[in-house]
Specification:
296 residues, elongated
């Protein structure tokens, strides 16, 4: 009697993956709490136009430095602007910038890492170039680029993404170096597969897990760098709400109105904490060595 093996169809494989993800969330409380906090902060930032009752740029000098009330949930700043609205719009800007920085740095770093890890003649050239970029302090490079190119979204993304590219390139290169000697890669070449086909079908999937984890840390670093630039006065224009600029503007009034610094600082700290905690939990799940250590 011949036994027939049935392969899972896409319709049955997708629910099983969702069930596995839900099972992980139920067992890993750190991942569940960090993901819930992150989704909450992202949701209130994305839906800022619906949640904020006031225009974040509207000036009402007669209501300056007011405390929390039914009209102004988190009070007002030194110019009478709604602090709640400014924090939500500032978080929206930070999250958007972080996603753009992560996408651009991962794309460039992935390409350079694959080239350096697979093509040995180009390895030393690419890595020496990455060493040169890493020798420049990332914050100083961002300050110089923003000072020269202006506080535009494209300049900010480029200034923050460049220091992150060498780290991603080194990570991808290490993965490619370990995968290129695997038997299934050699078997693919033996079956007549081309180099681009092997890179896309066999080597590229091995880099996805570490890249996903690294992208979370890039997002957190981008949010923090943008806040530092805004605090130093090198961020976006004053009419654009930014968490760093909000904190900088409220610094002279801290003793009289401490909420101007405490509320945006708490939002910034919670956002970075949620991203880092989720990245750590994700790394523990996606790294086979850490996963086996946790089960043992």
């Amino acid at each position: 009697m011949r036994m027939s093996a049935t392969l899972p169809t896409p319709s049955t494989a997708a629910p099983s993956r969702w069930r596995a993800a839900l099972r992980v969330l139920r067992t890993d409380r750190v991942m569940l709490l960090s993901l819930a906090l992150l989704l909450l902060l992202v949701a209130v930032s994305v839906f800022a136009p619906l949640l904020a009752a006031h225009d974040p740029a509207a000036l009402t000098p007669r209501k300056r430095l007011q405390g929390m009330s039914a009209d102004y949930w988190l009070g007002t700043d030194s110019l009478g602007r709604d602090l709640f609205a400014r924090i939500l719009y500032g978080g929206r800007l930070s999250i958007t910038l972080a996603l753009l920085v992560a996408a651009s740095s991962v794309a460039v770093g992935l390409l350079l890492g694959i080239v350096a890890g697979y093509f040995r003649r180009l390895d030393s050239i690419v890595m020496r170039l990455m060493d040169g970029v890493m020798a420049i302090p990332g914050l100083l490079l961002a300050i110089a680029m923003v000072a020269l190119g202006g506080a535009q979204i494209s300049t900010m993304v480029l200034a923050i993404a460049i220091p992150e590219v060498p780290r991603i390139a080194r990570l991808v290169r290490s993965v490619v170096l370990s995968v290129r000697e695997e038997p299934y890669v050699e078997a693919a070449f033996g079956m007549g597969s081309s180099v681009p086909s092997v890179l896309v079908r066999h080597i590229l999937p091995s880099t996805i897990n570490p890249l996903v984890v690294q992208a979370t840390f890039v997002c957190a670093a981008a949010i923090l760098t943008e806040a530092v630039l805004g605090f130093l006065g090198l961020g976006f224009p004053p009419e654009v709400p930014s968490l760093g600029s909000i904190i900088a503007e409220g610094r002279p009034y801290f003793q009289r109105a401490p909420w101007i610094i405490l509320f945006p600082g708490s939002f910034l700290a919670l956002l970075i904490l949620a991203i880092n905690m989720f990245g750590d939990a994700l790394r523990d799940r996606l790294d086979p060595r850490l996963a086996r250590k946790g089960r043992s």
